[in-house]
Amino acid sequence: LLFKIYKELKKPTLKAVARGIPFQDDKVYQFTTIAPGAYGVVYSYDNNEWPRTGSVPFVAFIRRVGCNWFANTRYYWRIDGQLKELVQRVIGSPAGPTNSPMNLSDPLIAYEKIEWVAYNGDTVPHVFEVLNDGVLYPAEVAKLLEGSESSVSHPR
């Protein structure tokens, strides 16, 4: 039986699914300029953009996060429509989110959407930057991994 399982795991498609699919390059790092006194979406990635296997959706496991920050500004970081954190600090490197993002020991799980909205309360425009990196798994695989890889459970 163990040999049969091992043989199945060596199949390329199963190996790829078990490893997951990395976030698309254009979805790892996003930025936008926000005028003084305005809100803007800095980062957005939703399950309409994630791959599908037939009718089976994929689930995102967020493993690395980073953002820049300015005085009198804040981010609203939402996962699946729920506020994860009101961010009023740098996450990762002060030199920028792509230089040294924060690695999460327990990945955060998103079933529907990852979104960062920023408010610029400053008197000048700022370029807001966010990095979210992770892996997408088919929902069936995600159910198996959710308990072992993450302390975050989802009500589904």
Question: What portion of residues is helical?
Answer: 10-25%
Number of domains: 1
CATH top level assignment? Mainly Beta
List the quaternary state of the chains: single chain
Question: What is the number of beta strands?
Answer: 10
Q: What's the story with the biggest beta sheet?
A: 6 strands, antiparallel
Q: Give the C-alpha Rg.
A: 18 Å
Cα-to-Cα separation, first versus last residue: 32 Å
Q: What is the arithmetic mean of pLDDT? A: 84
CATH topology: Jelly Rolls
Shape: elongated
Strand-helix topology:
Blueprint: H1 2-9, H2 12-19, E1 21-22, H3 25-28, E2 29-34, E3 39-46, E4 52-53, E5 56-67, E6 73-79, E7 82-87, E8 102-110, E9 113-120, E10 126-138, H4 139-149
Antiparallel strand pairs: 1-10, 2-10, 3-9, 4-5, 5-8, 5-10, 6-7, 6-9
Structure description:
It is built from 4 helices and 10 strands. By secondary structure, the protein is α+β, with helices and mostly antiparallel strands. It has one domain: Jelly Rolls. Mean pLDDT is about 85; it is low at about 150-155.
Quick structural summary:
With 156 residues, the protein is α+β, with helices and mostly antiparallel strands. It has helices spanning 2-9, 12-19, 25-28, 139-149; strands spanning 21-22, 29-34, 39-46, 52-53, 56-67, 73-79, 82-87, 102-110, 113-120, 126-138.
